[in-house]
Amino acid sequence: MDKRRIAAALLAAAMLAGCGETADSEDDLMIRASVDHTAATSETSLPLMTETITKETTMSEKPTETTTESSTTATTKKTTTTTEATTTTVTTTTAPETTTPPPETTTLPPTETTTTTEATAAPAKTEAAETKPAAPKEIKAASFMVATTLGSTSITWDAVDGAKGYTVCVRRSKDGEWEELASTKKTSWSTDEFGRNKSYAFTVKAYTEKDGKRTYAKKNEVSEFPYLTQKNGVTYVDGLLLVNKTYPLPQSYAPGGLTPETNAAFEEMRKGAAKDGVSLWVCSGYRSYAYQSTLYWNYVARDGSQTSADRYSARPGHSEHQSGLCADLNWASRYFNGSPTAIWIQNNCWKYGFIIRYPEGKEDITGYNYESWHVRFVGKEMSKLLTESGLTLEEYYGLTSKYNY
Ligand SMILES: [Zn+2]
Known about the structure:
33% of the residues are buried. Strands 1, 4, 5, 7, 8 and 9 form a 6-stranded antiparallel sheet that branches. The protein has a 4-stranded antiparallel sheet with strand order 13-14-16-15. It has helices at 2-16, 25-35, 46-57, 101-114, 116-119, 126-131, 260-275, 289-303, 306-309, 340-348, 363-366, 380-389, 393-397; strands at 81-83, 144-149, 152-157, 165-171, 179-184, 188-191, 200-210, 213-216, 221-225, 228-231, 234-237, 240-242, 282-284, 326-329, 354-356, 374-377. By secondary structure, the protein is α+β, with helices and mostly antiparallel strands. Zinc ion (ZN) binds at residues 321, 328, 374.
């Protein structure tokens, strides 16, 4: 009896809140769950959840940092850091140079508390060190941030008390050696050397100097760029789900349909197109791993080779359609290329948070033939950045799309 009444009340509450769109949000929650564990599960909080989800869809939310970044630094990739070798975690509270003093006062103290062991060492002893030949005390590691914009990499860090200078180092491969790039007394450094089709790790080492000999801070944070994370076998670049020939989705990844935010964005685009007299519809949205497998192997059988099928069909696990974040619109055929509708999509989809995922002339980068009908939802901020830059996701983040089997 009670249960029924509660259920009815819940239903009424849900209807009042107009959460019809969350009907299939369970799938979305699966994805979001890996990003945000704060999402409530109780039915009563559905309206709240809807808000959380829609907020999250905006790309600006990505690494849920509290630092306020200006719109010009939208391309700034906040990278998390891992403490090398040592198990101690250094709290990253890098404040971009542009931030106002308040965040520093609120965010910096935790860093200092975690490093109290070292902090006791040298509280402003730069002059004392000159008079007494004591060995330089251990200095704090620099808390830094790597940002990249269209192939240009810039690193900024907080000044470390007692440091004579800073050395910027790079590691060009996972097993590679650390290589010194530059030493500077400033708190920033930039170059155009990195950012394309490779992954790098950076570190900034603060040092003291005595008799021309440098002593580096022991614990140094390491920042990977591009910032790739894997959660439950799913790859995210800077918080954005990535699937291509290099980065597959696990077989178990099955949102079961387009994510609510993708659906909502498409609906908005459909209406916008209708105003221009263009009608849009989804001809292929979500595809399961199993379905993609059937599709792909049918193409292989038809073409007689994988090499041929690989140019237009993704191997199971590598299809973006499995993510629920993309859709083929109207007519998935090369005859659609250049049609008025395709041109409309090309010119306008970015306004709704979509990108043409496999653009013309980028076949070697994306790994796929030009597909004027395949749009990927990346959020409005990202779609604008990518469209303005004319770069594919792979180029923007310096990633590859190649099968390694
Ligand atoms: Zn497609």
